[in-house]
Write a structure and sequence with these properties.
- InterPro entries: CblAdoTrfase-like, CblAdoTrfase-like_sf, PduO-typ.
- Belongs to the Cob(I)alamin adenosyltransferase family.
- This is Corrinoid adenosyltransferase.
- One of its GO terms (cellular component) is cytoplasm.
- By secondary structure, this protein is mainly alpha-helical.
- The chain has one domain: Hypothetical Protein Ta1238, Chain: A (Up-down Bundle).
- It is built from five helices and four strands, in the order ββαααβααβ.
- Strand 1 and strand 2 form a beta hairpin.
- Helix 1 runs antiparallel to helix 2, helix 2 packs antiparallel against helix 5 and helix 3 packs parallel to helix 5.
- The chain is elongated and about 50 Å long.
Length: about 190
């Protein structure tokens, strides 16, 4: 259980912060940048939810909860449970990736195949979902860079990779099942 009774602690005033295992690292470390960007994704999802119908809002709510799980996963560098730890580290599990894939497949079944790239936009919800997509791609780039230097849960990497695909397909759903997608016209303004 998380208890936040004091918001500022002054422990990071010199530019470092505590990871989930208690280790202190620079606030600009790759691990902190990775889970910090996951937090950014979560904030963009909150904005998208303002424009979503009940079904889409429920899916986005599940994603927001998963994003906290992902942040918790990324903030614990130790991949094995530590006997000193108060609790077992929270990790993204394959079932969370499977749920995203099932939702992508269900949404995608309603869409006609694309014959062109699409421009981010259309409806307000689609525009927000495309922002979610691009920020999640940035989070993925940071997480994969981190995985090149330190151990990272493979399911976490798969989750963040599927997530941007989910946002892309959901953006098309938000554009009248793709009928209101704004297509890219190569060289249109030459």
């Amino acid at each position: 259980m998380v208890v936040l009774n004091k918001i500022y602690t002054r422990t990071g005033d010199r530019g470092d912060t505590a990871l989930g295992n208690g280790d202190r690292v620079a606030k600009h470390s790759l691990r902190v940048a990775s889970y910090g960007t996951v937090d950014e994704v979560n904030a963009t999802v909150g904005m998208a939810r303002l424009h979503a119908d009940a079904n889409m809002a429920a899916m986005l709510s599940r994603i927001q909860n998963d994003l906290f799980d992902l942040g918790a996963d990324l903030c614990r560098p130790d991949m094995e449970a530590d006997s000193k730890a108060e609790y077992t580290p929270l990790r993204i599990v394959p079932a969370q990736v499977d749920r995203l894939e099932a939702e992508i497949d269900t949404m995608n079944a309603r869409l006609t195949p694309l014959r062109s790239f699409i421009l981010p936009g259309g409806s307000a919800l689609a525009a927000h979902l495309h922002l979610c997509r691009t920020v999640s791609r940035r989070a993925e780039r940071l997480a994969t860079e981190l995985a090149g230097a330190e151990p990272v849960n493979e399911a976490a990497l798969r989750y963040i990779n599927r997530l941007s695909d989910w946002f892309f397909v959901a953006g098309r759903i938000a554009n009248e099942d793709g009928h209101a997608d704004v297509l890219w016209v190569p060289g249109a303004n030459r």
